[in-house]
Design goal:
Layout (H helix, E strand, L loop, with lengths): L2 E2 L41 E9 L2 E10 L8 H30 L4 H22 L7 H21 L2
Parallel strand pairs: 1-3
Antiparallel strand pairs: 2-3
Helix pairs in contact: 1-2, 1-3, 2-3
Length: 160
């Protein structure tokens, strides 16, 4: 059964202290699939294998995901959009636990404040890119690169 891709929303912070109640869809190239609750951007159109394991049994079925017909986006721009969302979601998944450690640890107050601010900005960037289906702007890509650098810097300063 084809599933229109644009009908789902997601949050890079699902399950964390800054969680969103929005449902999400995630995909993984791994043969094991994503970890339960792993957020991610909308999947690219294509054929996917869905696996469900319960009670010692695993059921598997192929599904076709089609592009939402309401979207007017080239495949190249769609890929750029998906890649940017994936990078922001990955940053959120990696930095969320780092922020938790910083907040609970002995880092100085300014590092804790900067870490909270970074979480907020990552979330805002994810929302900004996710609201528009098309290539991300140069500013958005620049912000992503800066947030990735800041995440490394703050992790080094706040690592207890």
């Amino acid at each position: 059964m084809p599933i229109p891709n644009g009908l789902w929303s997601n949050s890079p912070f699902a399950g964390s202290e800054v969680a969103s109640s929005a449902p999400h869809c995630s995909a993984s190239a791994s043969s094991d699939g994503p970890a339960p609750g792993t957020p991610g951007p909308l999947v690219m159109p294509g054929v996917y294998t869905v696996r469900m394991a319960a009670g010692g049994r695993t059921l598997e079925q192929k599904v076709e995901v089609r592009e939402d017909p309401r979207l007017d986006v080239t495949p190249a721009d769609r890929k750029l959009w998906t890649d940017a969302l994936s990078q922001v979601a990955a940053l959120a998944r990696i930095y969320g636990p780092v922020n938790d450690r910083i907040q609970k640890g002995t880092a100085v107050a300014d590092v804790k404040r900067q870490s909270r601010e970074l979480i907020s900005r990552i979330s805002g960037l994810y929302g900004a890119i996710g609201r528009w289906t098309g290539a991300p702007t140069k500013d958005q890509l620049s912000r992503l690169a800066y947030y990735q650098t800041m995440a490394k810097t703050l992790a080094a300063k706040g690592g207890d």
